Amino acid sequence: MWTRENALFNRSAPAVLGVLVGVVALTAPIASSAVTFQKTSIIVTPAELAKGVDYPLIGLIDQKAPVFLSIRAYAWSQTPDNQMILTPTTDITTFPQLLRVDAGANTSVRVQSTRSLDDTSEHYYRLVLEEFPPLETKAVKVVPTVQIRSRPRVTVPIVVAPAREERREPLEITGPRSGAGSPSGSLMLHNTGNTVLVVKSLASTVSPATRVPVGVTILAGSTIAVPLPKAISGDVEIIYSTAKNSYVLRHAVH
Amino acid sequence: MGAPSVILALCGSLTWSSISVAADMPGSTAEYPKADLGYLSYDAAFGVFGGRPTVSASLEAGLRLGDNAFDVQGFLSTSYATSCPFGCVVPRSAETVVTGQINTFAYRRHFFDEKLFLTVGRRNAPPDGELPGERIDGLSLVKQNLDANGALNLADVRRLSFYAPLGGVLSYRVADRIYYQKAIDPGLVSVDSSIFDRLPAGGITEVTFTDGRKIVIPARSSLQSRLLLYAPGTYSFDVSAGTTPGLNEAYAPALRGVGRIGVTSELTLGGGGELTSDFSRQSLDVSVKLPGHFGYAQAGAGGTQLLHVLPGYAGPRSGVSIEAEWQFGSNQLGGDLLVRRNFGLGEPPTIVRPRDAVPACPVADPSFGLSPASAAPCGPLASPGSRALIQSDPIRSQIRASLYAAARGVSLTVNAEVDTNLLTPPLRSVGLRLGGRLYRRATWAIFAQGSKFGPDRPRFDLGLTFSTPLGRSVQANVSVENEGGQTSGDVQVSGARSIDLQNDLRYNARVATDGRAALTVDRDFLGVSAGAAVIVGPVSGVAVAGTLRGGIVFGDGHVVSVRQPGDSLLLLKAPGLPHAEVFDTSATYPKTRLDEAGYAVIANLAPYRSTTLRVSAAKAPIGTMVNGDLIGSVQPGRGYEITLSTRRIHPIRIFFRLPSVGQGLDAYAVIGDAPAPVESDGSFYVEDSTRLTPHVIIVWSSGTCLLTIPATPRADDTADFHVDAGECVVQ
Lengths: 254, 731
What we know:
The structure holds 2 protein chains of 2 kinds.
Chain A (H helix, E strand, L loop, with lengths): L1 H8 L3 H4 L18 E3 L4 E3 L1 H6 L1 E7 L7 E12 L5 E5 L3 E4 L2 E4 L4 E8 L9 E10 L4 H5 L11 E8 L10 E6 L9 E6 L5 E8 L6 E8 L4 E5 L8 E6 L4 E6 L3
Chain B lengths: L2 H8 L26 E13 L2 E14 L2 E12 L17 E14 L5 E10 L8 E10 L16 E5 L3 E7 L2 E8 L2 E5 L12 E6 L4 E4 L17 E11 L5 E14 L2 E10 L2 E11 L6 E11 L11 E12 L3 E12 L6 E2 L36 E2 L4 E13 L2 E12 L5 E12 L3 E12 L5 E11 L4 E10 L2 E15 L2 E10 L4 E9 L2 E10 L3 E15 L2 E5 L6 E5 L7 E4 L7 E2 L5 E5 L7 E5 L8 E4 L3 E2 L6 E5 L1 E4 L3 E6 L10 E3 L5 E2 L5 E4 L8 E6 L2 E6 L13 E6 L1 E2 L1
Parallel strand pairs in B: 34-41, 43-49
Antiparallel strand pairs in B: 1-2, 1-32, 2-3, 3-4, 4-5, 5-6, 6-13, 7-10, 8-9, 8-11, 11-12, 13-14, 14-15, 15-16, 16-17, 17-18, 18-19, 19-22, 20-21, 22-23, 23-24, 24-25, 25-26, 26-27, 27-28, 28-29, 29-30, 30-31, 31-32, 32-33, 34-37, 35-36, 35-38, 38-40, 39-42, 43-46, 44-45, 44-47, 47-48, 48-50
């Protein structure tokens, strides 16, 4: 996936903006990082982000050599397949965007919005932190010997929170999933609210003991297909929560 | 479900790394640049109680002139009654007593080496072993114990046992610096406390699970406040000669000396003595760290001989005291056993003379959230005109045992105590406390205690406390007690609101079943802390009280407010960064904030220890860089000044096309001595555009190319300025 992203980026610079840059898997890391991240997310108000916030980074103490870390912000959205889409954005900037991290050193990156973001709905971005191995000075002067290595990459969510949650029970079912090649028995769930929600679990109303954890995040305004587990039969209860409330949505499955 | 669970779901892609263990401790660091500073701090409490005003105020001032330190501290108090509407007796005396005292009036400086202090004047010698602290006018020579890293090496008990629902990483950090990391597997985790022995104290032990959730493991407090374990071969001593308050209303000549030495890392010996014209005292103690969960032990012995007694005193003239304490166990199961025994006049006597009588609290009860002037102690009012006496009721023997167990969020503590005193009947008591959590955030506790005081009938106390949060920052607490057959209860609502750094608001409302009620508000703002309380009671009537605390530091022609000046003072100047937050390595949160002019005072830094201060430029325009080395150390009794200059740099990103032979390989742009990696989008970033030359070499594993950077004017305020440099030409 990242290769595809490279290809897109390697067009001329102005063409980069606004282009879908790729999809970053939420799962296992590519390689071990030499940097420790104190905060696993950045949750701020538009006013705080306008002033700028510090994102701290710590070099691991057993790190043998300093590493370079590229830190850039992207807009974050979702596909119905629950894939993360990162798009270049000019809403948010980071400084510096390239950081040398020494062993055990404390440092930080500044994240700041470049335009005023409204506080009626949540805005989603991600910091993409990509680690580059150090370039040995000798290699530059004599014979370049840089090896191809996998680059540890981490994405950190930035949630620009609205002033308040506007709507109660923001989850709507827009129907069973359709389309060629798609798994059957899925529900299309739409977040009509202005804050992120998490579908915690699905339960069968026939047998309350049947409860299957889900753990799907749906950003405000997004629609996600959630597969119905085989264990769930009959009517289904969707247990989900926002930052402040928890809800149960009942749905008859036909 | 609350916010944390949503946040957890967002945090998908953290990268975990290998296990690493701190290899070394921070070494000795050069001192910060010294400067001449002065300080003044105030701490006042006032109130109207029973229709009569009371005031208690303490004032402290000092100068830091190079290696010379001069301090003066005293208090003045007018008190009307033994106040404290809750927990204290109703006023019985209409007498107003004015009390004043100078506690410190001393000149200090280092002599011979950087860790040896000579003090001339009045100081309070701290308690040590079996010797109580004492005020001495005269000369003192103090050497502080320091290990190889310039820090006191104190025992700190951190045994960790907890249940981990997921795998993750356990880490120990002091501020931002991580000193220990260990991967943990799901299930019961038990970590040997000895891993913390070499690490600096004062940090946080936390676990970050693979789902991004982070929890802090509380370290159990224990003997650490009394147990001093020194590094092997390190030592300290404190020798004083002068006069001290004596029995007969006059100052008595006194000689006092205490010392302590680390024999091994598990064994420290301490001892000392004091000789005045009234009595002599000796003390010897040993502190031991036992292996594993056997914990820590401390034993001490002291001797006292009265050389001069007041007429009418018929008590014993000499005696010996012995004391031993053992604390053991883990976070889930453990105990504490204390045994004391005095033979004759075993316990060092406490001398109270009329003119040193401790003033009553003006309107003080810490449970209200209002505390009295900190330097003006309050307590029972001594009767004016009485003769000085040995006032305390010396303990003949004491056995105190407690056992605790904790599992699944429920904790049980059982206490038993037997006290025998010289003057009062023996006290025997047994109690238990059972507590836990309810629905995650609420807590409950039940305690029961049975006690018997001399020939009195046994007394039984029973209590129930329930506490629950009401919203994010408000807490409600309900408690019901039955003490010896009398039932009482109260309801409290308290809250705190942190408006920003240095700007806090706290409040507490309390109503008791006997008709007493109190409302307290506390506010911290820019180094000034103010509190107010209204207390209403059926007997005491309406009382109002207030407190005011704060301090200022003079230096560099400026006056800077500071909440509490410390022994060492550091004035930080960054004129280009007004309101910027200042961090140091001993705090997780910002230490302080620069004022409008870019000044701040950092007080109470740990002496001799390497400190890293960081001024955040987060509120300054992008590209603002802070120049200056903020790593250094402080020594007691000195003033320091650091000036930070700022400069503005303009970043630039260069897009270009890499030749096909270099694509897919790690490529770098050679910018001076700091190569910039070519990122996935075919660009590289230069933090300071002035370092960019018209021609840049791009290097990869099998070749190089030359890039010509076009001259492009830029707008200074453009946050993400970039240019397209076109094709890179293979060399």
